Amino acid sequence: MADADIKKGLAGVVVDTTAISKVNPETNSLLYRGYPVQELAATQPFEAVAFLLWSGELPDAAQLEAFQKSERALRPLDERTVALLDLIPLDAHPMDVVRTVVSQLGTFDETLNRPGGWTDPDLDLGRALYLFAQLPTIVAAVQRRRRGLEPIAPRDDLDYSANFLWMTFGELPSEAAIDVFRISMVLYAEHSFNASTFTARVIASTTSDLYSAVVGAIGALKGPLHGGANEAVMHIFDEIGSAENVVPWLDDALAKKKKIMGFGHRVYKNGDSRVPTMKAALDRLIAESGRTDLGELYDALEKEFVARKGIYPNLDYPSGPAYNILGFETEVFTPLFIAARVTGWTAHIMEQAASNALIRPLSAYNGVDERHVS
Ligand code: CMC
Predict the structure, then answer these.
(1) 259 alpha carbon to ligand 1 midpoint, in Å?
(2) Closest Cα to residue 344, out of 179, 218, 230, 164?
(3) How confident is the model at residue 93 (pLDDT cuts 50, 70, 90)?
(4) Which residues constitute the catalytic centre (predicted)?
(5) Is the whole-model pTM more than 0.95?
(6) Cα 49 to middle of ligand 1, angstroms
(7) What is the pLDDT of residues 227-242, one digit of tens each?
(8) What domains are there in the chain, each with its CATH number?
(9) What is the whole-number distance in angstroms between the Cα of residue 56 and the centre of ligand 1?
(10) What is the pLDDT of residues 245-287, one digit of tens each?
């Protein structure tokens, strides 16, 4: 096979159809089930977006109320999860902690033991809702634990976004801050066949169970070339320090051929469709918090890097500093991405199961020729 026939990294390869989202780099647009993501970010609670991704339609008022009621009932942590958290080293990376806890949640689900239980679509919808409801409680507990604080119980009177922040900080921030957080969740929810979603689909294609597919997806998301970039952006900001250091820092980083985290995208080559919405949200937080230092650094690095390389920011670039201003620890940024993307992952797992073909590509062998032991 000629090297040219090998699609390394599956770049440019269309492997299946999906009705969940459409990424169009030419028009710089992203649609969830037909709706522009910017419109959803401007108008919808995150619960409505989860409902949309799973069912194909936005909920009406009664459906949303019923959905939120079910989600709220599934929020509290199981005591066995609290016990598991106590066993995990305090300095373990939050991505590893969340991955481990999600794996444990799979062991609580007795319906997996039923004949055909692994792949029953109705059960999978319930499992998706369970993970969606549990992840904020888990992520909030993980951040608090790192700070030596006890977990805070969920509140039934708060929606997804407000409750997430309540459980993390023990107080409610401003309406604007809650709204920025909600927007970030909507923007992170779904993005077609990205690496973690594809990982989930590969696992689902073996007719494995939904929890296993989500655990695999979390592993894929952790890498800084994918979801880990939002954490890595903040490390870069900390390293640079302030706007006037951008030029020498960039000179050095590019001379060492370093990747600048939060820039570039496999699909979008002229800018990420989600960035303007998230940048506007970040600007609201900067104005409210007075963190103009962060805004100046953000603008200076973007201007300088785009001028030199013509490579544009992706969603992780504005979301990293936004999570910093909201008060999240840097190592918890990518777990926030898990909490959002679990909606897209589980929608894809169910879509894969509904018209399954085992995902099993080929490789071209380039090792030593056949040889024998004696
Ligand atoms: N910094 C420096 N150079 C870059 C960057 C970057 N961020 N992104 C691309 N390039 C260069 C790369 O070095 C290569 O140059 P050359 O042709 O001279 O070797 C060229 O651009 C093509 O890059 P590539 O890595 O082959 O392209 P790709 O389509 O495989 O990369 C990417 C996409 C996201 C892996 C890459 O842009 C990258 O590593 N970015 C930094 C990490 C990041 O921000 N990831 C988040 C991705 S989007 C949201 C998400 O998934 O969370």
Answers:
(1) 7
(2) 218
(3) very high
(4) 265, 316
(5) yes
(6) 29
(7) 999 999 999 999 999 9
(8) 67-224+342-354 (1.10.580.10), 229-325 (1.10.230.10)
(9) 32
(10) 999 999 999 999 999 999 999 999 899 999 999 999 999 999 9
Contact 196, 227 (CB under 8 A): yes
Q: Look at residues 296, 305, 190 and name the one whose alpha carbon lies nearest to residue 247.
A: 305
Q: Is the CB of 266 inside a 6 Å radius of any atom of ligand 1?
A: yes
Check residue 3 and give its pLDDT. 78
What number does the ligand 1 atom closest to the CA of 314 have? Answer: 48
Q: State the pLDDT confidence band at 115, using cuts at 50, 70 and 90.
A: confident
The confidence score (pLDDT) of residue 269 equals 87
Closest C-alpha to 278, from 268, 270, 286:
286
Angle between the 316-326 and 292-309 helix axes, to the nearest 10 degrees? 170
Taking CA atoms only, the protein residue closest to ligand 1 atom 47 is 226
What digits encode the pLDDT tens for the residues 127-142?
999 999 999 999 999 9
By most ligand atoms within 8 Å of CB, the mutation choice from 7, 37, 184, 225 for ligand 1 is: 225
| CA separation for the pair 156, 282 (Å, rounded) | 28
Check pocket membership of 312 for ligand 1, CB cut-off 6 A.
no
Asked casually if ipTM beats, i.e. exceeds, 0.95, the reply is yes
pLDDT at 26 over 90: no
Question: How many angstroms separate the CA atoms of 38 and 20, rounded?
Answer: 16
Atom of ligand 1 nearest to the CA of 272: 48
CB 279 near ligand 1, within 6 Å: no
Measure 106 CA to ligand 1 centroid, in angstroms: 34
Residues annotated as catalytic (active site), given as ranges? 265, 316
pLDDT of residue 28: 85
At what angle are helices 333-354 and 121-146 packed, to 10 degrees? Answer: 170
